[in-house]
Write a structure and sequence with these properties.
Number of helices of chain A: 11
Number of strands of chain A: 6
Structural class of chain B: alpha/beta
Strand content of chain A: 5-15%
Helix content of chain A: 40-55%
Radius of gyration of chain A: 18 Å
Strand content of chain B: 5-15%
Oligomer: heterodimer
Helix content of chain B: 25-40%
Largest sheet of chain A: 4 strands, mixed
Order of helices and strands of chain A: HHEHHEHEHEEEHHHHH
Strand order of the largest sheet of chain A: 3-4-6-5
Amino acid sequence: MLYRRILNEPALQLAKGEFGGRVGIWRLIELFDSHAIKATIFTPGRICELYPRALRQAVASDHELADHMWEHRVPREAALEADHLQKALAALTAIRGKPVSGTRSGHTNSLLKQSGILYKSDNSAGHLPHYIADKTGKNTLLNLPFHYAIDDAQFYTFGWLGSDGPAQRMSDPDRVLEMWWAAFLQQYNKGGYLNVCLHPYVSGRALRIEMLDQLIRRMKSLPGVWFSTCEETATWCVKHFPARRLTS
Amino acid sequence: MPWKTNYTISDEISLSDRGIVWPDHNRCCFNVVVDLSLASGPEGLLPSDLATADSVFAMGVGLAGLLDVLTSHEIVATFAVPAAMVKIYPEAIEAVLKQGHEVAAEGLFHEDVSPFSLEEERARMKAATSLLSEAIGSRPAGWYDLPRRRDKFAVGAISPYTTKLLVEEGYTYMGNCPADDAPHYSVTDFATAEAIVAMPYYYHFDDQFFMLYPRQGSGLENPDILFRNWRAEFAAQYKRGRFFSMTLHPGNVGWCNRLYLLDQFLDFVRSRPNVWNAVSRDCADYWTSKYPAATHLKLEPSVWKDYPGSLS
């Protein structure tokens, strides 16, 4: 809803996002807790002021709070960018009770490194976690690949990323369940990695919570699936597969 | 800045599933909204919207077919009606009322009110209320502003004044708000905690986005997807003991195979015991008496600070 505000969208568009804070996030926490799964919640810093109780509940349930920008944008001016990141990390750290180690954002690697960030989860140059450096070939960070095909908003949100009327292809949970199950199986069979992106205002809807419950049950029916937070995955990868060729 | 003005319309946490009780030991509230507008864009109903074969179908065969299906399942619905429609289609309004459905307001012409001044919007709301009151025989209890096909957003357009004016004009409820999937309060004044009850709306349960949307030739004809969304949402909300609402347009859902799917869906709903089929007015009345804003709307003091370079 912060992003809707930045785009200066009308009241009911903001209310559409508000569903995520009032209802959706609580249901997702409840769903993950019922499966003893710890999730990573990439949170815009200002959400700490709008929905502090839901975030405190997430922390109490041992989910990971990570950065998703201060106001869902990365300012172009370097000083303001640093100011926004510092504000977001301070707000999240205060609620988490310990420092934040990851981000889903386009913040510059050098600034992230200086701020103690260990990993990004921002795009998908490969299936597996991989290292990315900035243009200077330095400031290496681990990236946990995120792909739009495994993003709920792609299938359910009207006007996603500014798409217009004729471009809408709104779908249903049965179809998305099969698509994501196929993505999971393909990676499972080769010992890979899958990062599922859910938005509380989208996947917090009752029909989709049911679908996620089914998806998790299917995944759990197979042996050897590690349901980890991004922080746990990143820590493990950095320890066992340190960046060798890229300079830090 | 008072509380979270311009960011949120309601309080921080929704009423939990366990906190919601429906009348007569019912488990779930089932609400049907029929949008009787023929407006295709933000300017509202235009003469050109009326002069099409599709409009003739919508208000003739489509509406008759929809009313028959609702009656055969003993379902009552809330019809959102642009006030001008009562002058253009008086017999249709009469047929709707005769079958026990609720008629609620949907603007004067189902126009986007956001460009208007407060005075202009107030005058239009008064005119709409007066036209509808005359046709219904009493004041309408609810006000809708559902999205139109050519709208930029799929949520409906209201102005910053709309909900405040609804309180001023004595409306009981605001018809469409996506901030919750149970009735909730839309705050009209954060300082005094004045609010109006809002009924949930979500475009995934609205036929227009799945039936030749946004116009013929788009190829976007997915009534099967809509049917699966209705079924999955109703089953999930029934399990939670919460609320379900769908939005129908006679010109869309009244057509052949689509009407057949609606019939099947209503069979599915009626196969479940303890479903309260309520028109929006009855549901809103129940909500305001059982969960009054005075005790159930929980607004916290503001923690928001203004910083240079950040949103205010």
